[in-house]
Amino acid sequence: MRMIFYHPCPIQENGTSADTIRPYKMLSAFKKIGIEVYEVTGYAKERKEKIQNVKKQVQKGVKFDFTYGENTNLPLPLNEKSHYPTHPLMDYMFFRWLKDQQIPFGLFYRDIYWRFPEFRKKRPIHKWAIPLPFHYLDIEILRKMATRLFLPSQKMSEFLPGNWDPSKFVPLPPGCEEGTYRKSRQQGQTLRFFYVGGVTPPNYDLSPMLQYFSKTEQDVCLTICCREKEWNKVQSAKVYRDYSLDRIAICHKSGDSLKPFWEKADLFLALWGDISYHDFAMPFKIFEAVGYGMPIITTLGTAAGEFVAENGFGWVIEPRSDALSELVQMLKQNPELIEKKREAILAKRPYHTWEARARQVIEALCRKVAEL
After folding, report:
1. Of 93, 160, 173, 326, whose CB has the highest number of CB atoms within 10 Å?
2. Mean per-residue pLDDT for 272-301?
3. Separation between Cα atoms, residue 118 and residue 320, nearest integer Å
């Protein structure tokens, strides 16, 4: 099979955030399963040249089976370094050409935070007001031109503006890589929790976790890994001033340097404060935990919680310190429960790799997966 891979920025092999890691992983996954890939990636000038090359290939008789794209958190025309729309219609015209050529086209729509008023608070007006009409334009173009719109979760479709055909929506959460995992633990050993991700409310309010671990027993511990800049910001603003952090380890690592932390931990903890954003968001690190065979404790009523519950990958609880305390006490007394969850993850992990995600794209766009 032959495909076009679209992304409005350069592909980064060693990205440190989900919006840079995911495009690279998906591109690599298509190649690993044997797809011949033509890239339409990079900034606008580079994409323009690649689009012209693709069109020349089609004129010569080259057949493309499908096109898959990854967007960023910015509207498509604003992805230049300057964020100035130097080629405002180029991508939209390319999508129109794909439709005219009857080449199935699906794009992963990463986020819809811009629809939530709480994200505008404490942000300069130009940071959200200028991109806003471009976000709506992206949505309208995709509604008309895309064969499928891939989303982090099906729930996210409820927040998209416009009159969509529901059959266009396909959930495509992050994938994982199969990593090493911690061996069985014994009763009486310190129970090690690990969290990696955002720490800034309202999106990532860690209060339920910090409230418990700031006053917990000696035989449990928590390590939080986050960006140093974010942590300094919440510290200077005294966001978590009500909680003692003396017994919580804070680190600022990314990429391969996180591996020792994953391998030492028993459980991945993602217990956020209640916010509607998590109704549909599917955090990247949830799937990294799956890759390491690590049971997950996360928040009831969220898309991540539904995923964990449906697959039997951990425990889903209310975002309260007393709910966490009750669960921890049960796990300390019954460590075999952790091992059972780990076994469930390892059994299903092959269905959640990046290669599995690539095959899901092909099935959604082409209905061809048997030979891959």
Report:
1. 173
2. 92
3. 22
At residue 125, the pLDDT reads 87
Q: What angle do CA 354, 205, 208 make, to 5 degrees?
A: 105
SS3 content of the chain, % helix, strand, coil (to 5): 45, 15, 40
Instruction: Annotate 200-230 with three-state secondary structure.
Output: CCCCCCCHHHHHHHCCCCCCEEEEEECCHHH
Residue-level pLDDT at 347: 96
For residues 66 and 366, give the distance between their C-alpha atoms in angstroms, rounded to a whole number.
7
Q: Give the C-alpha separation, 250 to 24, whole Å.
A: 28
pLDDT in tens, 193-206: 999 999 998 889 99
Best CA proximity match to 67, nearest among 3, 142, 149, 147:
3
Q: Say whether pTM exceeds 0.70.
A: yes
* pLDDT confidence of residue 367: 80
Strands (E), the chain: 2-7, 36-41, 66-70, 105-108, 148-151, 169-171, 191-196, 220-225, 248-251, 267-270, 296-299, 314-317
Report residue 41 as tokens: 């990636």
Please name the amino acid found at residue 276. S
Q: Tell me the one-letter amino acid at 203.
A: N
Q: N- to C-terminal Cα distance for the chain?
A: 9
Q: Which two tokens stand for residue 206?
A: 């860690």
What letter represents residue 198's amino acid? G
CA 112 to chain CA mean position, Å = 13
The tokens for 350 are 């092959």
Residues 344 and 310 sit within 8 Å (Cβ to Cβ): no
CB 183 within 8 A of CB 312: no
pLDDT of 371 reads 56
Tens of pLDDT, residue by residue over 324-352, are: 999 999 999 999 999 999 999 999 999 99
Distance CA 332, CA 21 (A): 35
